[in-house]
């Protein structure tokens, strides 16, 4: 039997196997590529891939790469599936341990952001909250956390996590990354260069810890983690994958253990914003004053009322602020959007 058959049965590739087994609880399966690379399918949509022990890992790193945490954000899923196919077809050799994750297979089948609850709000233990008991997404978050912990425990190299997404709204900045907040943590310069290599020119620094996948891996696994927004949400088959070649090529370079190129024009300057306010649906007659169709990074002048409820309101402060991820259709307590402004002062959060 071929490696593909071992892992994916009659299905042509990883994505097809994942979509066709989204509700199945398949047992763990292990196989080896002809070059000795070990592939373990830890769960549906989760591959733990380790090069032979005598192969050099020049960048001394282990990588977690995830996509499809939101089921309708399909382009990064297609990018990852393509890289897995290349590896399995022997197009190149893997140099470092990688954990590849398609986050929410059932939502991918449904073509929806999520089924019952937003998976990307359930990490860092939030899946244990009583209101989420018995939900598919809570079980998936728990499963993914455990697999990531095992991977981090088994691979003592520097750990990196890139959680790949696409955005619901159009955006004045096509690609941007979010750096989860961890007390005392600064963005390493080599990670800024990696984002530029992936043609991601904008970085948002979170101002408080959250319950996203990247927050979990950075705070609990000590990974350097980023949520990376790579373009616009589209159904499977409708993505222009050329627009995603930056992340594809940059990830492939890391997987192969090749040296980092120095940033090249036009992708040689990272623009950094800081989150100044997270808008939450307070549930107290919450009113959101940002129109439904507004693009990410739309700027509002000082004094603009962004939201209000029966007790309070939020106005833009002394300098202009921009909105990211505006979405009032979320449950009470969940995020309606982020208010950001260009990073002030020196680059104190960058090293
Ligand atoms: O376009 C949108 O409104 C959402 C896109 C998306 O899924 N973004 C992530 C960002 C996670 C983070 O803050 O690190 C999300 O909302 O989960
Ligand atoms: Zn998303």
UniProtKB/TrEMBL annotation:
InterPro entries: AspA/AstE_fam, AstE_AspA_cat, Aste_AspA_hybrid_dom, SuccinylGlu_desuccinylase. Its EC number is 3.5.1.96. The keyword Metal-binding applies. Binds 1 zinc ion per subunit. GO terms for biological process: L-arginine catabolic process to L-glutamate; L-arginine catabolic process to succinate. It comes from the Bacteria. The active site is at residue 229. Its cofactor is Zn(2+). SUPFAM superfamilies: Zn-dependent exopeptidases. Keywords: Arginine metabolism, Hydrolase, Metal-binding, Zinc. GO terms for molecular function: hydrolase activity, acting on ester bonds; succinylglutamate desuccinylase activity; zinc ion binding. Residues 62-252 form the Succinylglutamate desuccinylase/Aspartoacylase catalytic domain. It catalyses: N-succinyl-L-glutamate + H2O = L-glutamate + succinate. Residues 269-342 form the AstE/AspA barrel-sandwich hybrid domain. Zn(2+) binds at residues 70, 73, 165. Pathway: Amino-acid degradation; L-arginine degradation via AST pathway; L-glutamate and succinate from L-arginine: step 5/5. Coiled coil: none annotated. Transforms N(2)-succinylglutamate into succinate and glutamate. Belongs to the AspA/AstE family. Succinylglutamate desuccinylase subfamily. This is Succinylglutamate desuccinylase.
């Amino acid at each position: 039997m071929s490696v593909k058959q071992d892992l994916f049965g009659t299905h042509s590739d990883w994505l097809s196997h994942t979509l066709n087994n989204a509700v199945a609880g398949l047992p763990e399966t292990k196989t080896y590529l002809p070059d000795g690379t070990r592939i373990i399918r830890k769960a549906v949509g989760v591959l733990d891939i380790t090069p032979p022990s005598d192969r050099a890992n020049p960048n001394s790193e282990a990588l977690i790469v995830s996509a499809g945490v939101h089921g309708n954000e399909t382009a990064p899923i297609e990018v990852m599936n393509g890289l897995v196919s290349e590896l399995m077809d022997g197009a190149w050799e893997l140099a470092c341990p990688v954990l590849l994750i398609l986050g929410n297979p059932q939502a991918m089948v449904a073509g929806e952001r999520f089924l019952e609850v937003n998976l990307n709000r359930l990490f860092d233990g939030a899946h244990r909250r009583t209101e989420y008991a018995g939900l598919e997404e809570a079980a998936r978050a728990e499963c993914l956390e455990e697999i990531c912990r095992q991977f981090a425990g088994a691979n003592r190299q520097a750990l990196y996590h890139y959680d790949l997404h696409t955005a619901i709204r159009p955006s004045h900045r096509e690609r941007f990354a979010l750096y989860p907040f961890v007390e005392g943590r600064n963005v390493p310069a080599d990670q800024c260069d990696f984002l530029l290599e992936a043609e991601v020119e904008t970085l948002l620094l979170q101002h408080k810890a959250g319950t996203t996948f990247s927050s979990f891996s950075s705070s609990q696994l000590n990974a350097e983690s980023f949520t990376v927004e790579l373009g616009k949400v589209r159904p499977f088959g409708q993505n222009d994958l050329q627009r995603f070649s930056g992340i594809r090529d940059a990830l492939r370079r890391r997987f192969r253990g090749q040296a980092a190129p120095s940033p090249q024009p036009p992708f040689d300057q990272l623009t950094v914003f800081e989150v100044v306010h997270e808008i939450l649906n307070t549930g107290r007659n919450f009113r959101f004053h940002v129109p439904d169709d507004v693009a990410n990074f739309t700027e509002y002048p000082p004094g603009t009322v962004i939201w209000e409820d029966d007790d309070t309101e939020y106005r833009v402060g002394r300098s202009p602020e921009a909105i990211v991820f505006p979405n009032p259709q979320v449950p009470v307590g969940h995020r309606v959007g982020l208010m950001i402004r260009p990073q002030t002062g020196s680059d104190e959060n960058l090293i």
